[in-house]
C-alpha cells in the first residue's frame, strides 16, 4: 500500500489549538516518519498555512499540503468511529485509559476510521474535548517530570502504530454492523441534550457542563452501530413528540 493513501486503519492525527507553526511542522515530520499523512488542525492559533511549519517539517511537505483545518474537535473527527484523547489526567471523566501500544493494536484491528487528539502545547485538551473521545491515551512517563512536547507525543504514538503492521482486521462468520461515526454520535447527543433542556432536566445551572459530560461519556462508551444510533434518535423523537391516538 502506498503510504500516502490512508486506509481505515491509519489514524488521523488531530492537533487541537496548536500554537507554533514550528511545532506543527515537527509533528508532521514525526507522522511521515511512520507513514501517517492525515493531519487535521483545530483552530491553530496563528492561522493556516503557517510559513514556519515548512522548514520544521524537514521534507514532510505532503503532510502539510494535505492538512485540513476545522473549527471544533467534533467537526474534525466527525467521520471517525474511534477517537482517542491524549492526556495525562482523566479530568473527572469515567473513560477507559489505554497506553500507546494498546491503542495501536486496537486501531490496527478496527475496520472503521480512528483519530488521535493532541492538545495545545501549554494547556493540553479541555475537559469537553476529552469527553468527545471514547478512550484516553496516556504515555507512561515519569510522574515527577511530565514535560513531553507535541512532536515527541506524536512520534511515540506513531511509532507504536507502525510496530503492529502485521495485525489484521479479524473476520467473523457473520458480518459486523458498521460502527457509528463520531458525527452520527454527535447528532444523537445533540438531540438528547435539546430534549433534556426542554424538559428542564439540567439543574442546578452550575452543574450543567459536568452533567452533559457525564451523559456524553455514557453514550460514547456504548459502542453504537449506526443502526442503533438511528433507533435511539427515533425513540427520542417519539418521546418528545408522541403520536396522538
What is the percent of helical residues? Answer: 40-55%
CATH superfamily of the largest domain: SPOUT methyltransferase, trefoil knot domain
Low-confidence stretches: 1-5
Strand content: 5-15%
Question: What CATH architecture of the largest domain would you give?
Answer: 3-Layer(aba) Sandwich
Large-scale geometry: globular
In N-to-C order, the SSE pattern is EHEHHEHEEHEHEHHHH
Number of strands: 7
Strand order of the largest sheet: 3-2-1-6-4-7-5
Please state the average pLDDT score. 88
Helix segment tally: 10
Question: CATH class of the largest domain, please?
Answer: Alpha Beta
Main sheet properties: 7 strands, parallel
Query: CATH topology of the largest domain, anyone?
Result: Alpha/beta knot
Tally of individual domains: 2
Structural class by secondary-structure content: alpha/beta
Which key phrases capture this entry?
245 residues, alpha/beta, Alpha/beta knot, Helicase, Ruva Protein, domain 3, seven-stranded parallel beta sheet, 10 helices, 7 strands, disordered N terminus
Write the layout of secondary structure elements.
Blueprint: E1 12-16, H1 21-33, E2 39-42, H2 53-57, H3 61-66, E3 68-70, H4 73-76, E4 82-86, E5 97-98, H5 100-108, E6 114-118, H6 127-130, E7 135-137, H7 150-163, H8 182-198, H9 208-220, H10 226-240
Parallel strand pairs: 1-2, 1-6, 2-3, 4-6, 4-7, 5-7
Helix pairs in contact: 1-7, 5-7, 8-10
Amino acid at each position: 500500500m502506498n503510504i500516502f493513501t490512508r486506509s481505515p486503519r491509519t489514524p488521523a492525527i488531530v492537533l487541537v489549538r496548536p500554537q507554533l507553526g514550528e511545532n506543527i511542522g515537527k509533528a508532521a515530520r514525526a507522522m511521515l516518519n511512520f507513514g501517517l499523512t492525515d493531519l487535521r488542525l483545530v483552530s491553530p492559533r496563528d492561522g493556516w498555512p503557517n510559513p514556519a511549519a515548512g522548514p520544521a517539517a524537514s521534507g514532510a511537505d505532503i503532510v502539510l499540503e494535505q492538512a485540513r483545518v476545522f473549527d471544533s474537535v467534533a467537526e474534525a473527527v466527525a467521520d471517525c468511529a474511534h477517537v482517542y484523547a491524549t492526556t495525562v489526567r482523566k479530568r473527572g471523566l469515567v473513560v477507559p485509559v489505554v497506553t500507546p501500544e494498546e491503542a495501536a493494536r486496537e486501531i490496527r484491528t478496527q475496520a472503521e476510521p480512528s483519530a488521535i487528539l493532541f492538545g495545545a502545547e501549554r494547556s493540553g485538551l479541555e475537559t469537553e474535548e476529552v469527553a468527545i473521545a471514547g478512550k484516553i491515551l496516556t504515555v507512561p512517563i515519569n510522574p515527577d517530570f511530565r514535560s513531553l512536547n507535541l512532536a515527541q507525543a506524536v512520534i511515540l504514538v506513531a511509532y507504536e502504530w507502525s510496530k503492529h503492521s502485521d495485525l489484521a482486521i479479524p473476520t467473523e462468520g457473520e458480518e459486523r454492523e458498521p460502527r457509528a461515526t463520531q458525527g452520527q454520535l454527535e447528532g444523537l447527543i445533540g438531540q438528547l441534550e435539546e430534549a433534556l433542556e426542554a424538559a428542564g432536566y439540567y439543574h442546578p445551572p452550575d452543574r450543567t457542563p459536568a452533567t452533559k459530560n457525564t451523559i456524553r461519556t455514557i453514550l460514547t462508551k456504548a459502542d453504537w452501530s449506526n443502526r442503533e444510533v438511528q433507533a435511539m434518535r427515533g425513540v427520542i423523537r417519539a418521546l418528545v413528540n408522541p403520536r396522538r391516538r
